[in-house]
Design goal:
The chain is an alpha/beta fold. The chain contains eight helices and 13 strands. Strand 1, helix 1 (about 25-35) and strand 2 form a beta-alpha-beta unit. The two termini are about 35 Å apart.
Length: about 260
């Protein structure tokens, strides 16, 4: 898909990737987003199927029936004019103020460097430090295309996506495809304070308590909640993934494959 630039190369948009079955998260997401990032300098878009969120400052991109995560995202990218997209997922809820000046400094460096990808959380960490704030992500590292809090050159993201893939498929198979591209970076600390609220369609227990405390009038609705066994299994998986990054880059893929099959 050819996505020709239609505005200055410095233009950046926030794209909240969602779908109608996660519409129950839009209220807490945008409540917290605009509370903690009220001076966000970027146009905000919301990807959905047919539902429209009537939220000030948000442009809806309804793309029709749900096909796959990658198909939906490809359709949304074709409707965005900005040359860079800052990907948010609707289940990543802000938990504190965003330092806009710091974010603009890092994103401005990335754009002026004509980068293809940068993530603004400190994990996974960069493989080689460039400055005190950013580093490069090696071509053969795992999760090179991790979508969480990532800013992409829109054209490159579209080239790496494949129809039919889920977000998890993209973070693994897309990482392999990305090895043909340089200009992949990561910040060395977290710039956007968030919590991952939903895992496999269910609320994390601590995230639900936090959301209830932050969002007055919030109602969980029919969405299920992880039981204690599921929450414990999640904790072990997260810790296992983090341990991989203590290993040399060349060891990470074989060990992950051995563990995960």
């Amino acid at each position: 898909m050819n996505l020709s630039p239609r505005r200055p190369a410095q233009s950046v948009a926030v794209l909240v990737v969602s779908c109608d079955k996660y519409a129950d998260l839009w209220q807490p997401f945008f409540d917290l987003f605009f509370r903690y990032w009220s001076d966000c300098p970027y146009q905000v878009y919301l990807l959905s199927n047919t539902a429209i969120a009537d939220i000030a400052g948000v442009k809806g991109i309804p793309i029709g029936p749900d096909t796959s995560w990658s198909d939906n995202l490809l359709q949304a990218l074709a409707q965005i004019e900005e040359d860079y997209v800052f990907l948010f997922l609707e289940d990543l809820l802000l938990t504190g103020p965003v330092d806009t000046a710091a974010v603009e400094t890092v994103v401005g460096w990335f754009v002026s460097s004509q980068g293809n990808y940068i993530r603004l959380n400190g994990f996974p960490p960069p493989d080689v430090a460039l400055t005190e704030t950013v580093g490069t992500v090696a071509p053969d590292t795992i999760y090179r295309t991790a979508t969480v809090l990532s800013v992409w050159r829109r054209q490159i993201l579209a080239e790496l996506l494949r129809p039919g893939e889920s977000a998890w498929d993209f973070e693994t198979a897309g990482s392999v495809r990305s090895e043909a591209y340089d200009g992949f970076y990561s910040a060395r600390r977290n710039y956007i304070p968030v919590m991952n609220a939903i895992i496999k369609g269910k609320w994390q227990r601590t995230a639900l308590r936090k959301t209830n405390s932050l969002c007055i009038g919030f109602e969980v609705g029919a969405r299920p909640i992880l039981n204690r066994r599921e929450q414990a299994a999640l904790w072990l998986r997260i810790r296992g993934n983090r341990l991989l990054y203590w290993l040399p880059v060349a060891w990470r893929k074989p060990i992950r494959k051995f563990i995960c099959g």
